[in-house]
Specification:
Length: 259
């Protein structure tokens, strides 16, 4: 049995992490690969942190493509071979003519959930503009959604399985930059990285729109460090690279912004 309370100490997504601990115990006991449902980035981050010190089990996360936000985790005993090919996922094409009735990510997801399925069974939804969307789901939902997902907004759609290789992924745009700051405060580094005023950044932090390593941070004075990932809803992500101290005791920070 895994050290349950130790892993759960201080986690926000307690129910989800507890469920994964149960699945890990099952994987240890049965010598089988056990799969979770799709998990959100904050859930994935907490699970990876909580399990990082354990030697009994190994985890592999996969959501269909490298930048996938929602991913499933395959869990197995450490002695067993495990790779992302064992994370079962399926891809659906939701095709229709959206030229005159544009549908958003929320519209496609809402139509899927409207068939009666739960969010945990769905991964990322990739919107393809006027042609429709692609949705990553657990394989057992493919037949059900192909039969039941027939409309998104006012548009009639045809839902059918396609191969994972047919995913139309847009590589995120990447911008490398360097800033020199008096401190490593979140508001200072994030405002430089996202190219906005310090006061605007403080407002975003205060209103709960900023996450560091997928945890909500509401203190502008929070300190950041190398390797941290700052995410702002609707504005992309910022990865903090190497940090060096200048001769004038300021911080030179390498940043990578993903848009």
């Amino acid at each position: 049995m895994l050290p349950r309370e130790e892993i759960l100490k201080g986690v926000e997504n307690r129910d989800t992490v507890a469920r994964v601990i149960d699945q890990a115990d099952q994987a240890i006991k049965t010598w089988e690969v056990v799969l979770t449902d799709f998990l959100s980035p904050p859930e994935l981050a907490e699970i990876k942190r909580g399990f990082s010190r354990l030697t009994e089990v190994q985890l592999v996360a996969w959501g269909g493509y490298p930048q996938a936000e929602r991913q499933r985790i395959a869990i197995a005993r450490s002695e067993m071979p495990l790779d992302q090919s064992q994370v079962a996922i399926a891809v659906l094409e939701i095709a229709g003519n959206f030229l005159f009735d544009t549908a958003s990510h929320r519209d496609f997801l809402g139509a899927m959930l409207g068939t009666g399925i739960v969010r945990e069974k769905t991964g990322d939804v990739i919107v393809l503009g006027e042609r429709g969307a692609q949705a990553i789901v657990v394989p057992e939902l493919v037949e059900f959604l192909a039969m039941n997902l027939q409309q998104v907004r006012s548009v009639t759609v045809k839902t059918q399985p396609i191969d994972v290789s047919e995913l139309k992924i847009r590589e995120p745009k990447k911008k490398e930059l360097t800033t020199v700051e008096a401190s490593l405060r979140l508001d200072a580094i994030a405002s430089a990285g996202f190219g906005m005023s310090r006061s605007k950044m403080v407002d975003l932090i205060d209103s709960g729109d900023v996450r560091v390593n997928w945890k909500d941070i509401t203190q502008a004075s929070s300190q950041v460090k190398s390797g941290d990932l700052i995410a702002i809803r609707g504005k992309g992500r910022l990865e903090i690279g190497e940090i060096a101290v200048t001769k004038k005791d300021r911080y030179r920070v390498q940043l990578t912004r993903y848009m």
